[in-house]
Amino acid sequence: MKTYINPTPEQWSALAKRQTVPTADLNETVKSIFNDIQKNGSTAVKKYTNYFDGISIENVAISTAEIEKAVAEIPTDLKNAIQIAAENIKRFHQSQKEIPTKIETTSGVFCWRESRAIETVGIYIPGGTAPLFSSVLMLAIPAKIAGCKNIILCSPPDKTGNINPAILYAAQLTGVTQIYKVGGIQAIAAMTLGTDEIPKVDKLFGPGNQYVTAAKQYSQQLGLAIDLPAGPSELLVIADDTCEPEFVASDLLSQAEHGGDSQVILVTNSEAIVSKVSSAIEKQKAFLPRQSVVEKALENSRALVFQSIQTGIEFSNFYAPEHLILAIEDAENKISLIENAGSVFIGNYSCESAGDYASGTNHTLPTNGYAKNYSGVSLDSFVKKITFQKLASKGLQNLGPTIELMAAAEQLDAHKNAVSIRLKKLQNG
Amino acid sequence: MKTYINPTPEQWSALAKRQTVPTADLNETVKSIFNDIQKNGSTAVKKYTNYFDGISIENVAISTAEIEKAVAEIPTDLKNAIQIAAENIKRFHQSQKEIPTKIETTSGVFCWRESRAIETVGIYIPGGTAPLFSSVLMLAIPAKIAGCKNIILCSPPDKTGNINPAILYAAQLTGVTQIYKVGGIQAIAAMTLGTDEIPKVDKLFGPGNQYVTAAKQYSQQLGLAIDLPAGPSELLVIADDTCEPEFVASDLLSQAEHGGDSQVILVTNSEAIVSKVSSAIEKQKAFLPRQSVVEKALENSRALVFQSIQTGIEFSNFYAPEHLILAIEDAENKISLIENAGSVFIGNYSCESAGDYASGTNHTLPTNGYAKNYSGVSLDSFVKKITFQKLASKGLQNLGPTIELMAAAEQLDAHKNAVSIRLKKLQNG
Questions:
Q1: Span A392-428: which CATH code?
Q2: For residues B179 and B150, is the Cβ–Cβ distance under 8 A?
Q3: Listed residue (A52, A11, A9) closest to A188, CA to CA
């Protein structure tokens, strides 16, 4: 970790820079796969599965038998752990339900809003060595609470044509309605366009590599909603001398192991902490299996020493981290200063891993500075909030003249007339 | 209005089709203007104002004197009307504030979320003959309630180099912090990139023509958030024989006058209502100044007669209208059937104009079928919701083993270690 002592505000932009992953050159590939799947449906999907995943899949839909087999395979202690995490995630997301409140804005004029589930949502879960069943929990649980009718999950098959059993277990536990063995651009295209086998969805969720990201961007251009713009994962820790350097080191390493493009930032008011954390990193790193990934991520990572924690928080707001750990004195009373962050972890015992898996908060969060203008995934991500209004005749009589005046001033006479014709009727009737 | 009697489900897709406005061919224009403004800042902005608006603007920022002049020009009755509308909009959007609730998901594990304002928002208000000051209210009022620090407004200058006084009045009333005489692609580019005169914003709001729409799409690709994907305005009215055909006609016409690309749909269970509404349209149309616009919009418009209102509601959910009027018996008890709509108007006295101007609901709504996967603008649009979590040492002891198991199963050892190292400390300490 390169260390910067009292960086000036002019340096902040450079210090807040993320590694950017170029995706523009994938656009042509994405478009051609979408066009092929638009034209040739599941035949094209299977062709790309064969090409990219190196396996020929006859039945893309996961069968009940396959799910039962997976459920049987998962060790009981892991099942229990997944169930505990699921309960916490459920509890927290259920608390995000909005109770409609009718507001009488003018006497006789009632306004309120009600949530309705997005009918069909698509969840993408990457394949690879580490089965991200935790992302299944984070996306399917709020979808279920929202009341989404169809919860579609796509994940690439491995070399034996299967999806990791932990993913299947999490999917059946949380109420995913259909699971397909399809990955990459072809999965996103199938869920965007619909095929004879895979339904068209209204909104797409879930992590993915740069191909999946580029495909999701293209889906958005075609009219689908997506969860969040994507970027590599990141963590910023603000630490003062009340922190435990070993804990801080372990958190920075946990972020670093996500990928070589991950970024970890240590912000502190003490050079001594930087050196303590650095030496703890060296010690702990030696025992980690993903050492080369961790080392690559640490190359993009920084330790920033400011004169005060206050300035450190200002930098953090400027950086807008996906994850923010506050390992500082009286941390809970500092949170009103936090303006931009995806999820915040307060105090020495709130490690990022807790939120990644089991505390109950969602781990699908804005990266790459998007915490300035986007929220992480929540129950809100799976509903639309529809506004309703009811004007009693008295309400229109009270508010009608206001509407008539404004419509006339905007030169929208038919808008005015819709009011006038009603007021006239009320006057005569 | 072309009438369809009992259209079969196979016909629904065609009947729900909107006029699509092609924007792809604007992409090159948009990109070149963005690049020029990126390189040449306000000089380029002024060049495009000169080119597109036919006026040379020295000071793009509106001065206090210009605002004072505008305030003095607005008639008192219009001022009063705008203030009444503003109060209602304020009341309804204030009711959307979320009160943070701490949830103890596991003993010693506390999760909650808090809203933070998006720091800098940009509001675009089109120019032209009709000054859309109502859109200023709909966007600046929730921005102010959210606590956005910088509320930037751009609107094109007219031929005399001014912005309509009603827009300026609404802007100063609602607390817009800076107003600039810039329109079109150059306004969106300036707010996206920032110039020496116009600040870079975090999120863009507001209506616009196809140039503005294409520019906002490009801004989104560059990392800005935008309010909603755009499309022409639309209204669907569901009416049974408790409706007032004259009222329904006036509502359809009020939507039709928005633009030739507007769409209005009448859904009913009675052919008699179609003919009554049609003849009321003919009568009322004769008195409207925007007759040619109205007639163009009516060409894309449809009357659909279903065997039951129930089926009509199903069609409406399929169509997902921006505005939905329920002019049916016992309308309020039918709203649980409404799945997809931007804003719903209940009963004979709830005309769309009320929501367009003054009832309190927002008029920035999803068009073009986006009501299936997007909500209209609300207080939520101006904030991020940050999740917070605090694990007491007891909380981590309770939940730690769960996290360790899950992290190990995802092969993320550093994630596991962040927990283990803390549990060890607690055990020893």
A1: 1.20.5.1300
A2: no
A3: A52
Query: Tokens 């224009």 sit at which residue?
Result: B29
Percentages helix, strand, coil for chain B (3-state, rounded to 5) are 50, 15, 35
Confidence of residue A23 (pLDDT cuts 50, 70, 90): low
Q: CB–CB of A385 and B375 under 8 A?
A: yes
Inter-chain CB proximity B353 and A403 less than 8 Å: yes
* Residue B320 C-beta-side C-alpha neighbours within 13 Å: 23
Cβ of A109 and B88 within 8 Å? yes
Asked if residue B353 has pLDDT above 80, the reply is: yes
Mapped onto helix, strand or coil, the DSSP state of residue A319 is helix
- The bridge status of strand A150-155 relative to strand A178-181 is parallel
Each domain of chain A, given as residue ranges in start order, spans 24-226, 231-375, 392-428
Report the Cα B157 to chain-centroid distance in Å.
23
Nearest to B152 by CA among B115, B117, B187, B116: B187
How many other CB atoms are found less than 10 A from the CB of residue B56? 11
Contact in structure between B56 and B46 (CB atoms under 8 Å): yes
**pLDDT at residue number A260:** 87
Phi, psi of A127 (to 5 degrees): -95, -140
A111 CB near a chain B CB, below 8 Å?
A: yes
pLDDT at A429 over 80: no
**Which of these CATH numbers, 3.60.150.10, 3.40.47.40, 3.40.1190.20, 3.40.50.1980, describes A24-226?**
3.40.50.1980
Q: Are A426 and A396 in contact (CB under 8 A)?
A: yes
pLDDT digits (tens, 9 = 90+) for A78-130: 999 999 999 999 999 999 999 999 999 999 999 999 999 999 999 999 987 77
Distances (CA, A) of A257 to A233, B412, B417: 10, 7, 12
SS3 of residue B105 by DSSP? strand
Distance from CA of A88 to the nearest CA of B (A): 5
Cβ within 8 Å of B, A 43-102: 77-78, 80-82, 84-85, 87-88, 91-92, 95-96, 101
- Residue A176: both structure tokens together: 């995913």
Q: In residues, how long is chain A?
A: 429
Side by side, the strands of the sheet bearing A343-346 are A2-5, A302-305, A263-268, A234-239, A323-327, A343-346, B383-391, B109-117, B103-106
B393 lies within 8 A of chain A by CB: yes
> DSSP per residue over B323-350, as a string?
EEEEESTTGGGGGGG--S-SEEEESTT-
Please tell me the distance from the alpha carbon of residue A63 to that of residue A70, in angstroms, as a whole number.
11
Token readout for A76 is: 């009981």
Q: How far is CA A181 from CA A30, A63, A140, A157, A204, in A?
A: 19, 11, 17, 5, 16
Q: Is B352 a catalytic residue?
A: no
**Does domain B2-20+231-360 match CATH 3.40.50.1980?**
yes
Tell me which residue of B249, B60, B189 sits closest to A418, measured CA to CA. Answer: B249
Q: What is the pLDDT of residue A87?
A: 98
Spatial distance between the Cα atoms of B350 and A390, rounded to a whole number of angstroms: 6
3-state helix, strand, coil in chain A (%, to 5): 50, 15, 35
Tokens of B326: 């329920």
3-state SS class at B57: coil
User: May I ask the CATH class of domain A231-375?
Assistant: alpha beta
Active site residues of A: 322-323
Known binding site for NAD(+): residues of A? Answer: 124, 186, 209
The reply to whether B322 belongs to the active site is yes
What is the distance between the alpha carbons of residues A301 and A51, in angstroms, rounded to a whole number?
Answer: 36
Dihedral, A321, A325, A327, A329 alpha carbons, nearest 10: 80
CB contact under 8 A, A342 and B386: yes
